[in-house]
Every structure is written in structure tokens, then in C-alpha cells.
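yo

u said u wanted the structure for the complex thing, so here. seqs first:
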Amino acid sequence: DVKVTQSSRYLVKRTGEKVFLECVQDMDHENMFWYRQDPGLGLRLIYFSYDVKMKEKGDIPEGYSVSREKKERFSLILESASTNQTSMYLCASSLGAGSNQPQHFGDGTRLSIL
Amino acid sequence: DQQVKQNSPSLSVQEGRISILNCDYTNSMFDYFLWYKKYPAEGPTFLISISSIKDKNEDGRFTVFLNKSAKHLSLHIVPSQPGDSAVYFCAASGITGFQKLVFGTGTRLLVSP
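structre next:
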């Protein structure tokens, strides 16, 4: 069974802080994704990565960056947290390109920026 | 611009009856469609998918129907159970090589005993 683990379930930070959200998957998946989920907006893609050290912008990358130094780990970084980044953050992973495979999600990190 | 739309924010059904959740899309390049179920405080769980070369895919109580000409898909749950109460997300992807998914806004299903 695929296991995607997000380091924190709940996180409270202050405006202007640099915030790190960590995600680890144990199935040797090539692709990893970061989404945020907000009421009435569904899941929106922030960044994704299809290989180590590779990254691509999603639909809402502003204010975020990512790091993928190892295949199993994908980090989301809020460079200078703002209150509009209060949200549920979801990490996902899937097998490599060329095959229709579902994405598998972690349980999410509920981040509050005060 | 919302490329994947779930126009019903909520649906209430009695236990044992059929639940039908609907999803519309606008991008004709989408060729792979998925349904996810999400309980509160958990991540979305993959439920069922369908490729554009099919018009129906079944897995136990869950069936997904795809109407490409109408750019419409639906998820049927028969019979519905109280444990099916959750938010259901429809998602779509095209051949980008990176399986980038576009999600709908979700439909909250409540199955009452």
C-alpha cells in the first residue's frame, strides 16, 4: 500500500515567517505534487516534480517554492508566510509519466498563519 | 476558468438508494478521469477512474459513466451506505506526461440511515 506521510497535521505560524512543509512517500514514485484545498475552490495545484531536483509550477505558485533533493521527499516552502496562505495543504505522489495512474495523497497539513 | 465543474455542492440520499454525483468538463484534451473520496481531516482517497476510450467502468458498488460528446461524467453508488458520506471530487488529466490533475470543487454526499 502506498504511504504518503506529511510531517505535521496542524501548524500555526506567524506572518512573515519562513515555513517548511515536508512530505515523504515510500513507493518509489517519480511524481510528487503539492496542493492546497480551500472551501468552495477544491484542490489547486501549487507545484509538482517529476524527478529529483526537477520542479514545475502549478496553477498557484506565487508565494511558494519547493525542493526535491531526494526521490522520496518533496518540501513546500512558504518564503514569507501571509494570512491568505492559511489553508489545508495536501501532498500527493504517483508513478512516472506515460501511464495513467492515480495520485495518492497524504492526510494533509492544516496551516494557520496568524 | 473552471475546467472541471461539480455544480452540486451537496447531495442527500437515503441508505440503500442510488447516489448520482455529476461532473462536467470543458477541455476536450482531457482523456483520463478520476473520482476521489475525502473524509474530514484525511487526505483524498482514490475511488475509481475511467479512460476516454471507455464509457463505463465498474468497481463493486461504484460505477463511473463517461459521455465524451457531452463532456460529462457521473459516479453512481448503489446501494448507498452511511459510510459513503464524504466529499467527492472529480478530477481530469490529459496526456501531458506528468499526470497533472485538474480537480472540481467537490460534492458533499450525506447518506442517512
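The longest strand of chain A covers residues 31-38. Chain A has no helices and eleven strands.
cya
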